[in-house]
Amino acid sequence: MKHNKKSANANIPKGILLTAKVLQKLSSDLTVKFAQKLFATPLKHKIPKREFEMEENTIQKLLKIPEIGKEVMVYEYGKSDKKVLLVHGWSGRGTQLVKIADALIDLGYQTISFDAPAHGKSSGNTTLMTDFIASVMEIEKHYGPFEFAIGHSLGGMTVLNSIKQGLQVKKAVIIGSGDSVTDILKDFIGKLKLKAIYVQKMKEAFENELNGDMESYSGYVAAEAVSVPFLVIHDKDDEDVPYRASENIVKHLKQGSLYLTEGLGHRKILGDKKVIETLLQFLAN
Length: 285
What we know:
By secondary structure, the chain is α/β, with parallel strands linked by helices. The protein is built from twelve helices and eight strands.
């Protein structure tokens, strides 16, 4: 894990690390606010060429999510009464699971995906997983019912929590998902090179805003409350989310199976032929 943290730190702009260092010396309150803003602000990336076809061949509509007062861009891909919900991860977009979507289209499904709040073409600059969940629950009202749900990274935690909150699906697949909100905060604070006490300070600040326990949204906690069959996929060389997270999630699922890969990392896994074949076999059986 030391190697992972070192490489992650190297990707953080020096200006941000310097600001965090200075604020830490000046004010704990300012440090928490700075860290909170960073934590809730996703990066926006240009759509890669591999996603162009899905981008061009989808029906795209903005959908208002009343619970959070934001709009999200929804992508309808293919035409079928059999629908599959796709949920991207942090700093992703609605077309990110294109290879999985294409495979599902070939089998006669329609996929419904979306740009989460503050992602892609959706409104806002900051967001949290609770916004992802609220979006899923509203999308189900307008586009459901769904046969299956598939989520990547934070999208995996979103799928778990959405099913816990009432999303109806027959089966679900999560890929490269985290298991503990506290561990995610610890990793984030470590990357900013802030003192460990800021993990608890950030947790308390977010909980005051959400009026709830952040750890209750953890993947392993949500897993205990769901009963539908789950396929949990993770790569052993994932430097963003350790595969131990998926091992922990499976331990808490009533019907969960684990499929581990090697050499694919956190994102390449989404387009791997063997991974997609395994996913499709699970959904079909």
